[in-house]
Amino acid sequence: MKNKILFYILIVLSIYSCDLKPKNNTEPKVENITISKSDSTNNTRINRISSYKTRIDSINQSLQWKELKCGLWLSKKNDLGFKTTAGNEQGIFITKYITDLWNSDSPIKLNSVIDTLTFNYLGSSFYKDKNNIYTHYSMADGGFFKIVENADHRTFKIIGDCYAKDKNHIFGVRKMILDSVDYKTFKTKKGIGCYAKDKNGYYFWDNKLNEEEINDTEIMETITALKKL
Fold it and tell me: What does the alpha-carbon distance between residue 203 and residue 60 come to, in Å, rounded to a whole number?
């Protein structure tokens, strides 16, 4: 009888033990592996960007950049630079100095073109010296700096927050010459962002707004301001 009772006890303990093993050894382990991989990937990305920032900061420090009166910067190697900032979704910002103009396949050094004595900021993204009109196109990597081609140097002026004009063209900060707008009736104003109008309709940056966008409650105030121009 004692042997039978002992036998039944051993069977129950064996079943109970088997029932516990999957719960303790499988589900938590899978979940922990998933979280670990995600954290590892994110940390690797942040470490890589942080390492890149440290390297660029070190290079900048070694070049001993100094700001000129015109707003440009000069390195100890006499390279002229336009100071800008690169950013990313991790919130790490890197100071960069653009030393080449973007107008050619081969690098053109800023100090071989720009006259620092007459270089000045016009507004929006535009700059000017005695020879050319320039623009800085801002992007996450710091963007690029270039000569605004086909701009009339004498009549070029800023209009509103994101546009410019000369005697021949309307310019947008992204597309430059806006061939699709009506020059004579194109209007915008400061304080309303990258919105404008002409006789044919309303624009955001260089894109014409459709009826649904014009009636959007979030931009109705801006459209009302444009209608008064």
Answer: 40
